[in-house]
C-alpha cells in the first residue's frame, strides 16, 4: 500500500467488528485508533487528524451521519468510509452527497475496504501532518505522547517549578516552551540557558549578571538571565552541569526570588518561573554528593519524563511524514512515496539520538533523493531490537530456534503480524514472509 504509516480511525459500537477492522488496517501496514461511539470520538484528544475515518452508520446515540455533520460544522475535513448492516439506498445516497468517500454494506470483503482506504490515501503525502499548536507544535498519537501532553496541560497554568527529564534529543525544550505558552506568562519572555554550553567560570555572570568592574573585562554592567526572565519563564537546560559551588546561590534565587549581581551589593528581586531539564539521573547525583539535595527537591516540584523515541514507536511514521513534509518544501523536493520497507526499518531502529537523530536522517535522505520516492539513508550505527537480528541469521539456524523466536515475538505483539510495531517489523521480515514461516511451523492458527 502506498504511504505506509498513514493513520485511520475506526468508530463502531460492535466491539468484534471494530477490532476486526482495526486488525485488517494494521495488517496493511497502517496505524489505527478505535472508538466505541461518536461521542467518544468527539471527546478524545486528536493531535493529528487521520487520513481516513471508517465509520459505522448506525451508531447508538450520535449516529454516523450526525457525527459526519458535527465534523463538517467544526471545519474538520477528513475522508469518510461508511459501514452499515443495512443496504438502505436512500441513506447511502444521503451519505455520499454529504461527502462520504465510500459506503460498504456488512459483511464486506476485506479487499473492498482496503481499496476504499487506498482511495482516501491517494494523495496522503499531500495532506499536511499538522502538529498540535496548543501543546508546543509537537507530533504524536501514542499513549505515552498523550501522557506528556496531559502533564503539560495540568502543570502549565500553575507557577510550579518543573523538572523535565529525558534522553538527549527527545524534545525537552519543546515541552518547556509548551508549558510557558499555555501559562499566564505566555506574553512574557521565555529565556533559555544551556548550562552545559557555558564555561563554569562564566555561568554565574550569565545567570545573575555582573556590575561594572566585577572582574577583568567587565567594562559595563550586565543583566543576568534571571532579570531578563522577570514576569516570564527561565528555562535551565542541562541543569545537572551546574557546578556545586554555584548551586547555593541558584537555590536562594529559586526559593527567595532574590540575588545580587556578581560584584554588587544591591539585592535584586525578580518574579520568574523556573523550568529545568536534564538527561542525567539527578537523584543518583545527589546520592553521590555531586548535586545538592535541597536544590534537587526545589526543582523537582513537578517531575515530567519525556519518553525516548524507541518507547513510542507508533509515533515514528507520523514523525517521518512530518519531517519529510517540513524539509521537502524547503529543499525544493516533491516526495510522493515513502517505501514501506524503509518505513518499517526506521520504525524498528532504536534511535539512540531520538527525534533529533530521526530529523537528521530525514534531511540527509531528502538531500540524496532526486525522484518522487524518498531514498532513505539508513542510520549507520545503533542497535535494532534483538528480535530483528533473526532476519540476518545464517540459513543453518535450527527450525526449533526460529520457531521459538517467532512465537516469542508474536506473544509480545499480541499476535499482531503487520504494522509498524507488529511481529514482522520486529523480526526484520516482510509481513508475507512471516506469514509463510508461521504456516511452515504450524503456528498460524494460534494467532488468527
Structural shape? elongated
Termini Cα gap: 22 Å
The chain-level structural class is alpha/beta
CATH level 1 class label of the largest domain: Alpha Beta
Query: H/E element string?
Result: EHEHEHEHEHHEHEHHEHEEEHHEHHHHHH
The largest pleated sheet is described as:
5 strands, parallel
List the helices and strands and how they pair.
Layout: E1 7-11, H1 15-27, E2 31-35, H2 38-43, E3 52-56, H3 64-73, E4 80-84, H4 89-97, E5 102-105, H5 110-120, H6 143-155, E6 162-165, H7 172-181, E7 190-194, H8 200-208, H9 225-228, E8 233-237, H10 247-256, E9 258-260, E10 267-269, E11 273-278, H11 282-287, H12 293-299, E12 302-305, H13 316-331, H14 340-348, H15 354-368, H16 399-412, H17 423-427, H18 431-440
Parallel strand pairs: 1-2, 1-3, 3-4, 4-5, 6-11, 6-12, 7-8, 8-11
Antiparallel strand pairs: 9-10
